[in-house]
């Protein structure tokens, strides 16, 4: 995807005050009809400047294949393009007793990169936006409820876009389908059944021809 230099420069400038590192714009087919929106890069993603690699990436690939998709047939991006981190204690030698750990982005960090996601959505105009996890779903819709209540359900809704120092809703409705973040199963294996129920719903949605070819 081609990016306006000023847009990228401003996004990098706005994120400077926060504890983040790296910068990952996204990857995939920018003519695809399916956009996948994650939360933020992790350590590996920030280093290699590629979204969803490592364990979470392997899990995403598996889930995409299950519903008949691949990385080459979608565009993958995230709400925040830099890795949010926090310092935690560690016993690992050579670290000085602390290390950087991933954390959820806060609302100021999300807003700092809001214009990037707005630009991608406007440029691609996807048939479906898959929101991976509650952070992505809330950023898109403004819904602060439990994602467990809506996973796998196609929701036709206006989405939030930056305007001034806040958000407004788009005039157009988009189909947003929330799913659990791929990494969620590592921390809570009990949700695996729910994950595949939601993927079954998504697979059926695609089978019904709801995405333009």
UniProtKB/TrEMBL annotation:
GO terms for molecular function: 4 iron, 4 sulfur cluster binding; deaminated base DNA N-glycosylase activity; metal ion binding. It comes from the Bacteria. One of its GO terms (biological process) is DNA repair. Keywords: 4Fe-4S, DNA damage, DNA repair, Hydrolase, Iron, Iron-sulfur, Metal-binding. Pfam families: UDG. SMART domains: UDG, UreE_C. Residues 25-197 form the Uracil-DNA glycosylase-like domain. This is DNA polymerase. It comes from Halobacillus dabanensis. The lineage of its organism: Bacteria, Bacillati, Bacillota, Bacilli, Bacillales.
């Amino acid at each position: 995807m081609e990016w306006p230099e000023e847009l990228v420069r401003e996004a990098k400038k706005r994120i400077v005050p926060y504890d983040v590192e790296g910068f990952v714009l996204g990857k995939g087919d920018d003519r695809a009809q399916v956009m996948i929106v994650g939360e933020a890069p992790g350590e590996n993603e920030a280093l290699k400047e590629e979204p969803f690699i490592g364990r979470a990436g392997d899990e995403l690939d598996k889930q995409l294949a299950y519903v008949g998709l691949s990385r080459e047939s979608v565009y993958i991006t995230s709400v925040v393009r830099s890795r949010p981190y926090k310092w935690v204690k560690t016993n690992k030698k050579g670290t000085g007793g602390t290390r950087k750990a991933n954390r959820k982005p806060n609302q100021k960090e999300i807003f700092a990169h809001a214009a990037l996601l707005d630009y991608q959505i406007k440029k691609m105009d996807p048939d479906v936006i898959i929101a991976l996890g509650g952070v992505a779903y809330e950023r898109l819709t403004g819904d602060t409820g439990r994602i467990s209540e809506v996973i796998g359900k196609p929701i036709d809704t206006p989405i939030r876009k930056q305007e001034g120092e806040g958000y407004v809703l788009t005039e157009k409705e988009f189909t947003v389908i929330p799913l659990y973040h791929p990494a969620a199963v590592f921390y809570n294996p009990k949700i695996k059944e729910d994950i595949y129920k939601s993927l079954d719903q998504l697979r059926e949605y695609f089978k019904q021809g709801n995405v333009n070819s």
